[in-house]
Amino acid sequence: MRRWSWKGWAGVLGAAVALRALVALVLLDRMPMVSDARDYFEVAERFASGEFGGAFYWPPGEPLVLACALGALGKSVLVARIATIAISTAGVALTARLAGELAGAGAGRIGGWLSAAYVPSVVLSGQPYAQHLAALCLAAVAYFGMLALRDRRMAAFAWTGAVLGLGCLTRPSMVSVVPVLLAALAYTARRHRGSAGALGLGAALTVCCALALVIPAQAHDWRAGAGWTISTNNERNLWLGNNPYTPDYKTSHLGQRSLDELPPQERSYLESFYARPDARPATLEYVLHHPFRTALRTFNRATSFWGFDYLGSREIQNWRGWSTQEAMPLLALEVGSYVAVAAFALVGLLTLSGACAPGWRSWLVALIVAYQVPYAIAFSGGTYHFPVMPLVVPFAAATMASGVEAWRRSRVRKRAALVALGAFTLIQAEYAYFALSMRPASSPRASSRAALRSVVHR
Question: Are residues 320 and 282 in the same domain?
Answer without folding.
Answer: no
